[in-house]
Amino acid sequence: MRIGITLMLVVAAALAAAAPAHAQRQSLADRVGALEQQMYNNSANQDLLNQINQLRQQVTSLQASIEQLQHDNAQLKQSAQDQYLDLDSRLNRLEGGNAAPALPPVPASAPKAAPAPAKPAAAATSERPPSVHGDAGSLAATGDERTSYNVAFDSLKAGKYDDSAQLFLSFLQLYPNGVYAPNALYWLGESYYATRNFPMAETQFRELLSRYPTHDKAAGGLLKVGLSQYGEGKVDQAQQTLETVVAQYPGSDAARTAQDRLQSIRLGKQIR
User: Are 209 and 222 in contact (CB under 8 A)?
Assistant: First the structure.
């Protein structure tokens, strides 16, 4: 009897000892599984972080590209404006170099020249004007308004804009109300405009419009007022003046040039 009781106690003790070991093995397996799951999650998180870093690098690269494009666009806009001003100046030179300005008729009170031998009609504008050397005061020595005007205009055609400005000023002092005074005012403004002296150019073009509002140079003079204002940086005033050119002289060369510049101004405002 005592032996049986002893055997039962031994079996119970063995079972009691075996239970914690099993529990320990089960707990260890759970921990290993949890660690494996954590490692898997860490790997997924690392992949996600790598993707985020790649996206950040791409965004930074795109921002740099956008800034470069904006810079290039600003340079292109400035280059287009500079090219327009250069083209406008070159066209003015061509206008002066390829054809003489329209010459007003000689007033009835002017003394008549001695009759000349019959020549083709073009000879009057194609013959070489007399060469006058020296300072602007030499204009007075000719005693002839038309010759004096031609001397100043030839200087303009040769691209000597500082000289032509002085010569036209002297001409206007000698013949303030002469038949060539309107043309002289216009080309004086052009002389200043070609050297980018926009305030002085605007002053001369306004003088032309004030004194001779119906002259055939009036449309071009008003256009050049607007372009001079634009050169001075007075964009809003320039826009108003150019719109006036389009409204007052529809279909003219001045209106077409004004319309082109207006489109450039409006585009520039949209880009800003």
Answer: yes
pLDDT at 108 over 50: no
Quote the CA–CA distance of 151 and 183 in Å, as a whole number.
13
Q: Tell me, what amino acid is at 75?
A: Q
Summarize pLDDT for 66-92 with one digit per residue, the tens. 866 765 665 666 565 555 555 555 555
Phi, psi of 153, rounded to the nearest 5 degrees: -70, -35
> Contact at 8 Å (CB) between 240 and 205?
no
- Using alpha carbons, list the distances in angstroms from residue 129 to 123, 178, 247: 11, 19, 39
Token readout for 22 is 């099993």
Please check whether residue 224 is in contact with residue 234, taking contact to mean a CB–CB distance below 8 angstroms. no
Confidence of residue 101 (pLDDT cuts 50, 70, 90): very low
Give Cα 229 to chain centroid, integer Å.
14
In percent, the amount of the chain with pLDDT more than 70 equals: 60
Q: What is the pLDDT of residues 206-243, one digit of tens each?
A: 999 999 999 999 999 999 999 999 999 999 999 999 99
Residue 12 Cα to chain centre, angstroms:
101
Written as one letter, the residue type at 151 is V
Question: Three-state DSSP class for 110?
Answer: coil
What is the three-class DSSP state of 132?
Answer: coil
Q: What DSSP line would sit under 58-83, residue for residue? A: HHHHHHHHHHHHHHHHHHHHHHHHHH
Provide the H-helix boundaries in the chain. 2-98, 123-126, 138-142, 145-157, 161-174, 181-194, 198-211, 218-231, 235-248, 253-271
